[in-house]
């Protein structure tokens, strides 16, 4: 996908025990409201645990969980789509913390357990369109990124949000290779980060987030190409200048900062006019902003999206 840097978006353009990774361990430890999301949703509801349907819904058929958890891009565990499911067992998502710092008045380090207890978890169904022209419909469990940012009180100079993945070759054997410049980095404009669709996901299909899908916490930005949805996040920084992002550094002529789904502009090596939904043989037309134009198009008002995309 060819994306070049665009001028800055203007603000007016957008407007109690620790959790356990595995269900067996969770069942051994006993139930609790903070951990209820780890159960299948039916079991969680039956146990009287809070469950609030997300604000984003779709009638589209969900991608089978087996495909969602075995066909992944996560170069920290290998470059083949099947590598993450095979190799991600070395990742230890507990204990885990996320540093939120930069241009804010109350920088803080959040433990994953504190995050899960503090922010109401919602199940939202997104159609996540990835750069290889394949897509999935996934019931993510998470909460708006803006909720976490609000807690640290961003300063007015904060125009972008930078993200960083864990950098630990012992846990992430793919980082021993030079295929990318580690650690993995991503970024959003502050207005994009404050959009209701930008979420921090901690689970999928009513269960804890699998290692290969970015445990224990990852970004989901469904109107952008999949490489924007950084996994296994350890740092979120509010910054004034556009941050460097991994794929833009690796191939600036193909991967840029905004990375919005735009079927009208082809990648230098393939057409983006159609996509293939996992589980389907025929390709379908790719929708502008992945079908979320009503929620996000206003953020890019006035931008030439054929030039800045």
Concise summary:
The protein is 16% helix and 21% strand. The chain has helices at 23-29, 41-46, 65-68, 83-87, 112-118, 145-151, 190-193, 246-250, 293-296, and strands at 52-53, 97-102, 108-111, 122-129, 134-144, 160-165, 185-189, 199-204, 207-208, 218-220, 233-239, 274-277, 284-285.
Report on this model:
Residues 1-54 have low confidence and may be disordered. The strands form two sheets. Strands 1, 4, 5, 8, 9, 10, 12 and 13 form an eight-stranded mixed β-sheet that branches. The protein has 309 residues and is α+β, with helices and mostly antiparallel strands. The protein has helices spanning 23-29, 41-46, 65-68, 83-87, 112-118, 145-151, 190-193, 246-250, 293-296; strands at 52-53, 97-102, 108-111, 122-129, 134-144, 160-165, 185-189, 199-204, 207-208, 218-220, 233-239, 274-277, 284-285.
């Amino acid at each position: 996908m060819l994306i070049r840097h665009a001028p800055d978006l203007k603000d007016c353009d957008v407007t109690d025990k620790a959790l356990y990774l595995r269900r067996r361990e969770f069942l051994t430890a006993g139930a609790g409201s903070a951990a209820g999301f780890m159960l299948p949703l039916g079991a969680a509801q039956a146990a009287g645990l809070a469950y609030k349907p997300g604000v984003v819904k779709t009638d589209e058929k969900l991608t089978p969980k087996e495909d969602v958890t075995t066909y992944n891009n996560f170069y920290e565990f290998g470059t083949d789509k099947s590598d993450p499911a095979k190799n991600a067992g070395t990742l230890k998502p507990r204990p885990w913390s996320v540093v939120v710092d930069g241009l804010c008045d109350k920088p803080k380090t959040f433990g994953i357990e504190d995050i899960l207890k503090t922010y109401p978890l919602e199940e939202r169904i997104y159609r996540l369109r990835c750069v290889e022209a394949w897509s999935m419909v996934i019931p993510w469990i998470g909460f708006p990124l803006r909720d976490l940012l609000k807690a640290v009180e961003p300063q007015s100079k904060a125009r972008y949000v930078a993200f960083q993945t864990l950098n630990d070759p012992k846990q992430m054997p793919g980082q021993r290779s030079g295929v990318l410049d580690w650690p993995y980095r991503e970024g959003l404009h502050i207005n994009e980060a404050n959009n209701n669709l930008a979420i921090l996901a901690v689970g999928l299909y009513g269960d804890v987030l699998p290692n290969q899908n970015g445990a224990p916490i990852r970004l989901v930005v469904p109107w952008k190409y999949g490489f924007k949805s950084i996994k296994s996040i350890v740092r979120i920084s509010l910054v004034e200048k556009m941050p460097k992002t991994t794929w833009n550094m690796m191939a600036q002529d193909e991967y840029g900062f905004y990375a919005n789904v735009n079927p009208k502009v082809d990648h230098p090596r393939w057409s983006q006019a159609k996509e293939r939904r996992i589980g389907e043989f025929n390709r379908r037309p790719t929708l502008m902003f992945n079908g979320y134009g009503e929620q996000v198009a206003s953020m890019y008002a006035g931008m030439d999206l054929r030039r800045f995309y």
